[in-house]
Amino acid sequence: MEKKRDAAGMLWQTRTRSFDLAHHGLIMGVLNITSDSFSDGGQFIDVESAVAHARQLIEEGAAIIDIGGESTRPGAEPVPEAEELRRVLPVIERLAGDQRCVLSIDTMKPVVARAAVGAGAGIINDVTGLRDTAMREVVRDTGAGAIAMHMQGTPRDMQRAPHYDNVVAEISNFFRQTFSACLACGIDPMRLAFDPGIGFGKTVEHNLALLRNLDAMRVEGRPLVLGVSRKSFLGKITGSDEFADRAWPTVALTSYGRARGANIFRVHEARPNLEALRMTEAILGEEAAA
Fold it and tell me: 158 CB contacts (<8 Å, ≥6 apart)?
C-alpha cells in the first residue's frame, strides 16, 4: 500500500504528457539560445543549429528539452522580452511536433512563458521560483507543468555574497511556501516540481549541503529537479577551469542525486547521464520508487 501511494505521488503532469517518475528518472537536455551562457553561449543562437542540437539530445535519451533565450549565469544582464521571444519561439515551433520529448521554456517572464506554451511547450521552468503571481497564473491558465527553482537574489548579483543561516531549512521552507501559494492560485499540485537551484546564490559549501540533503527537501511527494551540469563549483572541487573536466563530475552527481531521491536531471550531455541514471536505478531496485 505504501508503494502505491509513492507511485501515485510521483506522477508529474505537463501540458502535453504525464510522466511516471516512481521508478525511473528523466533527463532534461539544456538548449541555450543565447550569446552569453556560461558554457555554450553563441553555439546555438540560430534556429537551425538549435533545432539540430535539440534533436541530438533527444536521440541520446533526453525526455525533456529545456529551451532558454536569456542567460542566467552569474552577472548576466537581462534580455528584453521581445528579443527572448524572437529567440525561442521559432525553435519551439519547429520542435513541437516531436512526440519523443516534452519542451520546456526556461524563462523568468510570464509573457514569454505564455507565448512559449502557446507555441508548443509543455513545461515552464522558472528560476525565480514562481514568486510572481502573474507566472503562477500562466501555469494555472495553460495547464503546463512547472518547475519552481530557488535562487537567492538575481542572476546579476546572486553570487556576490550568498548567505544562509541554514541553507537546507531555508530552501525547504521556500518550497513549502511556494507549494501553498500555487495551490491558493488554483494550480493542480500534480503539475509542480521543485529545484533547489544549485549554484544560484550559493557557495560551494551551500551546494554540497543541498546535495547531501536532497531527500529532505521534497514537498508533498512532488518531483525534485537537479541541475549541476558544468557548474563552476565542480571545477572548484576538482581543481580544473576546463569545462570539459566538469562532464564526469556531472555524471557522478546524476548517479548520486538519483540515489538521494532526485527525479529529473538537467544536463548538457544526455547519453552518459542517462546511462548513469539507469545503472543507478538498476542497483537501487525497488528503492528507486521511494
Answer: 74, 151, 152, 200, 201
Quick one: pLDDT band at residue 288, thresholds 50, 70, 90?
low
Contact 265, 257 (CB under 8 A): yes
Q: What is the mean pLDDT of residues 200-208?
A: 94
Cell of residue 5, nine digits: 501511494
Provide mean pLDDT across the span 92-96.
97
Distance from C-alpha of 212 to C-alpha of 260, rounded to nearest angstrom: 8
pTM of the model: 0.92
Distance CA 265, CA 244 (A): 18
Q: What would the mean pLDDT of 63-88 be, rounded to a whole number?
A: 89
Q: Please state whether beta strands 18-20 and 11-13 pair in parallel, antiparallel, or not at all (unpaired).
A: antiparallel
Q: What are phi and psi of 133, to 5 degrees?
A: -55, -40
Contacts 24+ apart (CB under 8 A), 271-275: 271/60, 271/61, 272/247, 272/248, 273/27, 273/229, 274/27, 274/60, 274/61, 274/62
Q: Tell me: the pLDDT tens digits for 224-279?
A: 999 999 999 999 999 998 888 999 999 999 999 999 999 999 999 999 999 999 99
At 163 the three-state DSSP class reads coil
Of 28, 30, 62, which Cα lies nearest the Cα of 268? 30
- For residues 219 and 221, what is the distance between their CA atoms, to the nearest angstrom? 6
Residue 126 C-alpha cell reads as 522558472
Read off the amino acid at residue 61.
G
Q: Read out DSSP for 18-66?
A: EEE-SS--EEEEEEE--S--TTTTTTT-SHHHHHHHHHHHHHTT-SEEE
* Residues classed as catalytic: 231, 266
